[in-house]
Design a protein that fits this description.
Elements lengths: L8 H7 L6 H23 L4 H17 L5 E6 L4 E4 L1 H7 L3 H4 L4 H5 L10 H12 L3 E8 L5 E12 L5 E10 L1 H6 L5 H6 L10 H18 L3 E8 L2 H8 L1 H16 L7 E6 L2 E7 L3 H16 L2 E4 L2 E4 L2 E7 L6 H17 L5 E3 L1
Parallel strand pairs: 11-12
Antiparallel strand pairs: 1-2, 1-5, 3-4, 4-5, 6-8, 6-11, 7-8, 9-10
Length: about 350
Amino acid sequence: MRWLGRNSPTVTLICFWRSSAFLKRAIIYGEFMKFSACIGESIIGRPDMEKKAMKFSEDFYRKVFDQLFEGVLIVDLQQRITYWNTGAETISGFSSQEVLGQHWEEVLKPTVEESYLGKEKSLLDSVMMQGCKWEVDLFLRHKEGYHVPVRLRVLPYKENQAESIGAVVIFRDNTVFLTARHPTSERQQITDLDPLTNLGNRRFSEVSLGAAVQTYEQWAEPFGVLLIDVDDFKFVNDTYGHDIGDQMLKVVADTLKYSVRTSDYVGRWGGEEFLVVLYEVSGTQIKTIAEKLRRLVEHNSLITEKGEIGVTISIGGTLAQPGDTLRSILARADQALSQSKQAGKNRSTII
């Protein structure tokens, strides 16, 4: 009987290579190989067969998973990382030596729109306890401090199809996908985009806001405006240098761009200020969105030679009102922003 030959479960795994569920099947077939080795030992009296098969299985799957672009990690019941593939290193910046044995959330600090940790914790627990699956778009912390948008999937990891002994977490970098949702022509890239952040520049932001005001006048389509200022930006520039300041602006820009709907607009208003135009929103919705953006930015940080720097923003917002002009709605948003600054920064005010 040839356990590792042409007809072995290892060859069967390769047949599933391009399947969307290949990872789960890989785990199942890996456990089947171990089970088969145990049977082989009892039949042919080869006490070393099980160990050899298990060693081959573990090494084989490790090599397979290390070829993937996706990040793959395995956690135990305490959610401590027991396996971390090359894809996870590439996406997160953390090496396996840095993360093995640590709680996965302490390393990657998953951030979603509604909350920071908590909901994800209970869902990951349910994956392991109830055997269900989970898929969500969120942000994971990179080693350098900024957050990476990812599509994350979680499935239970079982020993011999019994109770779960942990979970498998698979994640892919969603940056390219989200960028494709905001396409720009070559002309726009030259005349309308800010070269540092790749957001619309001041001129294009004024055009976008002016168009929203005109649409509101003609069709009464509601919209809101957020003016956003990066807190203590001058201090960061003076203390850490302009390169770090530019990096901070990029982090804020990317967080804002990837955290609003595709129909909304995000632009660089000038210096450390950003403008967001939110279409079809109510008073409650604009408050919720402003707080969501503030929290997401707050969970970023920058790693420098002088230490880690936190990133926060202050937000002022307002809804369009009858008779508004571009100047009047900007004046109210700026007034709200000033209130946020005076109240201690890192907060949002809607008037």
